Amino acid sequence: MRSQLREKQALDDCNQTMSVPRGAVHAKWIVGKVIGTKMQKTAKVRVTRLVLDPYLLKFFNKRKTYFAHDPLQQCVVGDIVLLKALPERRSKHVKHELAEIVFKVGNVIDPITGKPCAGTRFLENLSDSENLTEADTNYLSEKLQELKVCSSDK
Fold it and tell me: Residue 118, Cβ neighbours under 10 Å: how many?
């Protein structure tokens, strides 16, 4: 009699744990770089993190690749994106969805001048004094004074 009760309780416990939906992933939010967009409505995202080797006491890059659902296909290779974990899998490999594009590749704006730049050079020529208005020159001089940088034109 007692063994039958124990078996029934064990089956009930097993059924309860099987019916509860479990999260597919541990991390809820992940930031990574898009490395592929050849699949329809799916982006391949590489996430790198630093892991400490306990013996060498040195940090190493550890990377993992995730597939994320991108319904609008707005990602481009090189974008830095924020992924959100889905409550349940969308397919065999897709467990995340694209929450937001943090940095779009190729559209870098200089914070001081507000002009587009590529690397260390500006895409538009800044030395054209006829293109700059009075407000632009005042704004730039204020920013230079905030940074305590003096120009050589004075």
Answer: 9
